[in-house]
TrEMBL record:
Gene3D superfamilies: NADH Oxidase (3.40.109.10). SUPFAM superfamilies: FMN-dependent nitroreductase-like. Residues 7-189 form the Nitroreductase domain. InterPro entries: Nitroreductase, Nitroreductase-like, Nitroreductase/BluB. GO terms for molecular function: oxidoreductase activity. It comes from Tepidibacter thalassicus DSM 15285. Pfam families: Nitroreductase (PF00881). This is Nitroreductase. The lineage of its organism: Bacteria, Bacillati, Bacillota, Clostridia, Peptostreptococcales. It comes from the Bacteria.
Amino acid sequence: MKNLDFIYKRHSVRKFKDQDVPMEDIKEMIKAATHAPSGKNVQNWHFVVVKDKQKIQEMAKLIEKKHMEIANYTKDEKKREKFIKFLKYFIMFKNAPVLIMVYAGDYPVTALDLLKEGGASDEEIRELLKPAPGIQNIGAAMENLLLAAANMGYGGCWMTGPNYARSELAEFIGFKKDGYSLVAMTPIGVPDGEVKSPPRKPLEEVMTVIE
């Protein structure tokens, strides 16, 4: 059986040492990310690396401001309090030495145009788009990035929660690329303290064999 330890080294890391991550190491992680599979080999990803600690702190403040704004949309105090509790997970990157923002570009979904020309119903269109192949490409790239980071002695945490503030974040960093939008991010750094992964569901629960 081949050694798969490089997979099991990956954990969600939320606390980091105050230690720099050399740009050469970051480039190696992103290079690994770009070797992920993508439909039609579109490679509809772009990675923005933020190493300015002050900017990272300001980004956390933008998320906090947006979070509280959304929390105030409801008059249900219990619902509001529950939502506010998630904030700490969405800004835990604020003390990381590096933040990598992952952008997704347009992706041509096979058969979409033909279905539209054929008068397909909205339900048929939704069913076709449900697998979100363009975003699956990004997921594969992000996993490669995190596996590479872990194998190099670093840690990260796949984040999509702060996406409600993606317009504010994108405007703040000043990055623009036609057809691309922010979909995920991960802090990167040397883990501070022991990291444990939550238990996994047994294979019998998540695997079906048809012979």
